[in-house]
Amino acid sequence: MHRSRRTRIIATLGPTSSSFEMIKKLSDAGADVFRLNMSHGTHSDAANLYATVREVEKATGRPIGILADLQGPKLRVGVFKDEKIMLEKDQQFILDMDATPGTNKRVELPHPEIYQVVEPKTELLLNDGKIRLQIDKVEEQKIITTVLVGGELSNRKGVNVPSAILPLAALTEKDKKDLNFVLDLGVDWVALSFVQRPEDVIEAKEIIKGRASVMAKIEKPSAVHAIDEIIAVSDGVMVARGDLGVELPMELVPVKQKKIIRHARRAGIPSVVATQMLESMITAPVPTRAEVSDVANAVFDGADAIMLSAESAAGEYPEEAVAMMNKIASSIESEPSYRRMLGKDLATPEATTADAISAAAKQVADTIEAQAIVTYTGSGSTALRASRERPKTPLLVLTPNIGTARRLALVWGLNCVYSQDAVNFQDMIDKACNICHEYGYANINDRIVIMAGMPFGTPGKTNVLRISRVQDHHIKI
């Protein structure tokens, strides 16, 4: 039922992965969390996918996380008289607020926020960065530019402004409607697109009020610069390499990926690496060698989860893509060098009882060669601390909160079991030993390490570390 692979897999659902049969296949192939992309489809589509995932969860007996990814503010040019134009290097090109269909001389840019912050000599990027414009002059409703890199530009292509923090709210009106809808559904994670500053996350959290965990998507240079401040107010971060690779020089993206993962781990929150991981598998049954190396590097970096987008949502080989990601991650994790890489970047425990016990649990488990570390948790905070230590001993999480179990499905190494909380000290030992035996983590006479908090049922009270040996009397037949 549970994974030996520590790195988690997120699979996006879409037209080719909307049936119970296919979602079940993706789960069996290795998907731990499913993503609902709110940029596509209707609320009805999202509700159907949510319900189907919950049916698959019942069928597998494994808690499954669901992440709703909000679209965020999209900056786009208007339309053209002939639907598309060709821009030549060194020509002048004007962006303005006039809704008249564009020509190869000008086009509408209906975003007054951009006009407020851009300056001469800075650049605008169009069509995923394929077209680069240098700003010569800024007027109240007109930006005059020179084309640095030309090419074809068609209706409503995207605009990126890498050098500026735009006065845009991270949540558009569409996002707010989508957010309220997915919160009512009961999703476990909400991903915020185009986060620029910590205030963007705080604004969303004020609406969410603890009903879901919040993941900040890092896809703007301003977010990279404020990464520690954003991490401090987020429940997780996603390295969204699509727009990040447009707004930053591409060669810097791998460096920033490592930095974001490292800082998230030190703070004890999960990190996700996304975008174009197995892109060629949208149309091909096997990935390129470069894509395999890309996935492997994200695993080596210590990411909690790796994500498939169009590969599983609209591709021709969704099951094969998940299975391939599973194979790559499992292969890397079996390498001795993987364990050495994780050990190099070990987070320093904070001066708290919970951190001290989490660090001690790992050391004790290594010393006595325990078969499992069992963590009792209600809110999930104890389990997050245990994961941050990246122990080689399997982590089993017992929680009386199904929502916590689903949220933790995204976190490195955590295998969650929905179970009633312990009622006393002996019950804590009996439950842990019995479930370890039931799920194949330990046999009779094997030793396990148990972390818990007393009094039982009190959040944030990790204060017990116990070594137990699995005995016949612990096992319920």
Task: Report the radius of gyration as a whole number of Å.
Answer: 24 Å
Q: Mean pLDDT across all residues, rounded? A: 94
Which range best describes the helical content: under 10%, 10-25%, 25-40%, 40-55%, 55-70% or over 70%? 25-40%
The number of helical runs is: 17
Biggest sheet, open or closed, and with what strands and sense? 8 strands, parallel, barrel
Q: Any guess at the CATH architecture of the largest domain?
A: Alpha-Beta Barrel
Write down the CATH topology of the largest domain: TIM Barrel
The 3D shape can be described as elongated
Quote the beta fraction.
15-25%
Which superfamily, in CATH terms, is the homologous superfamily of the largest domain?
Phosphoenolpyruvate-binding domains
Would you state the CATH class of the largest domain?
Alpha Beta
Record keyword descriptors for this entry.
477 residues, Pyruvate Kinase, Chain: A, domain 1, 23% strand, 3 domains, TIM Barrel, 17 helices, alpha/beta, 21 strands, elongated, M1 Pyruvate Kinase, Domain 3, 6-stranded mixed β-sheet
Give a description of the structure.
- This protein has 477 residues and is an alpha/beta fold.
- It has 3 domains: 8-73 and 169-336, Alpha-Beta Barrel (TIM Barrel), CATH 3.20.20; 84-160, PK beta-barrel domain-like (M1 Pyruvate Kinase, Domain 3, Beta Barrel), CATH 2.40.33; 353-474, 3-Layer(aba) Sandwich (Pyruvate Kinase, Chain: A, domain 1), CATH 3.40.1380.
- It is 37% helix and 23% strand.
- It is built from 17 helices and 21 strands.
- It has helices spanning 20-29, 43-60, 112-117, 173-185, 198-208, 221-225, 227-233, 241-247, 253-267, 289-300, 310-313, 318-333, 336-344, 353-368, 381-388, 402-407, 425-438, and strands at residues 8-13, 33-37, 65-69, 84-87, 92-96, 106-108, 123-126, 131-139, 142-149, 151-154, 159-160, 189-192, 213-218, 236-240, 271-274, 305-308, 372-376, 395-399, 414-418, 447-453, 462-469.
- It has an 8-stranded parallel barrel, surrounded by 8 helices. Strands 6-5-9-8-7-11 form a 6-stranded mixed beta sheet, with helices on one face.
- A hairpin with an 8-residue loop joins strand 20 and strand 21.
- Helix 10 packs across helix 12.
- The longest helix has 18 residues, at 43-60.
- 46% of the residues are buried.
- The model has no long low-confidence stretch (mean pLDDT 94).
